[in-house]
Each structure stands twice: as structure tokens, then as C-alpha cells.
Amino acid sequence: MTLDANSAIWNFETWGRPCRLVSSLLDCSSSETTPIQIERGFLFSAILMGSGDVYVWRMHAGQYKKAMAKLDKDESTRTIFLDGGTVIPCQTWEMDIDLIKLPSFPDLPDLLATGLPEEERRKETGFIKIASFDHGLVGLTNKGHVLKIDGLPDKNSVYIWRYVSGSTQIIRYHFLTRDTQLPKFSDIGEVKKHPAFHTTAGRNGRRVPPQVESSPDTMVITHVSCVALICSEFCI
Q: Which residue range forms the structural domain that includes residue 200?
């Protein structure tokens, strides 16, 4: 899947038959209806809108196969052989999708050590990035909060965005027998406690934070990708 220069969403499942996904919620007439990022999980796809809203949908195999069968009957869209080589004509088509709007996130605490300018801190909190895993999403706000939501894309489920700093959260992977723990990584105070950011044990046998000189004691998360995080500034 990809976004084109006009913010239209295209799905490439079959050579020569790109599909444009169509919905009245994606007409790009305002920020509310303009996609800025798309992600794909195991059985679902997700869209982050300019408004900060997040939608998900599931590609229906029956609908897709029906469209492919129709194109197969058209001589102009069939694979042809020319001078010993294979030519695949390009035939675009459109498919209506049934979008599910995910709920708003809960009230979030102020992250005081982000180093963000006061002007940015006063802005309304909203999603600026999303990242997918097997059956869920991780979302990043403009203030540095990281949240997650599970169980996508069941239309009958009650979805809840969970803030992963207040307590250690668990992502359950469909094909794994063990659970993967998300650390408390939205708040610098919690990050400092994580063993990954400590040096080897000192004389008293306790791990101590490494000394980093001339760096601010601030941290703000700026990107998420496949539940991996990149911090723009970090100092322990």
C-alpha cells in the first residue's frame, strides 16, 4: 500500500492492477478527510488522518476476487507475450472500503521533561505517528506519549487506547507462545530505571546510570516504527 501525491491510497496486490481505495471519509477536502500515513498489520490496514483520527479496515477477500475475475474477462488487462517477453498491461480500478474509526485516547499526563517549547506544549494533544504490529497499533502524540491498541480489526470489539507509561503493558503476538513486554518509555524518569540505559555494576554491586556530560536532561519521542522508538534527545 502507498499514498500518492494527492493523498489517495493505493493497494498493490496484483501486478498491473493497482487498486485505489475509496471512501467518503477520504475525499481530502479538509484535514479531517486527508490521510497522512498508512500502516498494515497482519489482517488489517490503518490510516492516520490530518485531524489525528485513526481508521482501520480489513480487505475483504471475496470482494477482491470478484473484482479480479471481472478484470480477467477484459482482453485489454490480460498478460500478453510480445517478442518472447511478458507484458503486463496496467489497469487501475477502485474499491469501496468500510472504515472503522478508532476511539479517542484517554486523558494523558503532562510529560514535563520533553524539552518542547511552550508553544508546542500548549497545542491540543493528538496523534502524529502510528506503527502497526500483528493485531494492533502503537500511536505517538505530539507531546511524546506512546499508546497502543489491540485486537484489530474486529468490528464488534470495544477498542481502547492504552497509555504504556503508567504500567508495563503486554503485546500478545498471534504466533508466539510468550509475551513481549513494552517498557515504560514515555517518561524519562521511567526510562532511567531500565537496565538497557545503565552501565555495569559499580563497587556496591548496583547498576548506575552512565555519566553523559553537556547534554540536557530531557527526552521526547519523535518517531515510532514497528513498535521501535527513536528519541530526538536523551540524557541520563
A: 105-233
Instruction: Please identify which residue in the block is written with the cell numbers 474509526.
Output: 101
Tens digits of per-residue pLDDT, 138-186? Answer: 999 999 999 988 888 776 677 889 886 554 444 443 333 344 456 567 8
Non-local CB neighbours of 199 within 8 Å, separated by 6+ positions = 207, 208, 209, 210
In a domain, 132, yes or no: yes
Reading the block at residue 121, the C-alpha cell is 506544549
Beta-bridged to residue 95, according to DSSP, are: 21
Q: Is the pLDDT of residue 206 over 90?
A: no
Establish if 29 belongs to a structural domain: no
Q: Which residues contact 190 (CB under 8 A, 6 or more apart)?
A: 165, 183, 184
Say how many domains are in the chain.
1
What pLDDT shows up at residue 172? 43
Nearest Cα residue to 99 out of 7, 6, 24, 8: 24
In a domain, 158, yes or no: yes
- Tens digit of each residue's pLDDT (9 = 90 or more) over 122-132: 999 999 999 99
Residues ≥6 apart with Cβ < 8 Å to 77: 16, 17, 71, 89, 91
3-state secondary structure of 99: coil
